[in-house]
Amino acid sequence: MAAPNDVQIVTIPKDSADQNQCNLSVVPEVEEFDYSKRAQWLRAAVLGANDGLVSIASLMMGVGAVKDDVKVMILTGFAGLFAGACSMAIGEFVSVYSQLDIEVAQMKREKRMVENDEEDVEKEKLPNPFQAALASALAFSLGAIVPLLAAAFIADYKVRLAVVVVATTAALVGFGGVGAVLGEDEGGEVLW
Q: Which family does the record assign (predicted)?
């Protein structure tokens, strides 16, 4: 006997001599992936990476346009990386935690949390503020590293500024492509 969630496929032979024989095969039910969970951290990661990339590149180019000292430019970039990563993590945490509060209050109003089984399923679907904050801070740092590495090994300040612009542009295209690929479901539809 098959389990309640399994599908039975019965093959009926065409030949009248074989009509008493039937082949039973069990095909397990395919679990669907919940893309909404991935959309939460993906949004935080893409926005964090783009913000880190553009913010630090702009900060470094502004300092580099005024002062041609590579040490000052790199130090400014690292200070911006640290401050920006902290800011993004805190902002994302507060934002997602507010969303979590709203969803929990809505669930209580609708009395969905009455049965323990349903409570566990519903809690799994809730956003995780710690995960979103970590994704945002790490992504900001990843984005910020690109202009820092691009500028670190170039002595001439005019060439250094041009390299930062080119590296930032290429990284924006790359981050956009990665976000687009990760943001699609199996059917090719964009999640966010």
A: Belongs to the CCC1 family.
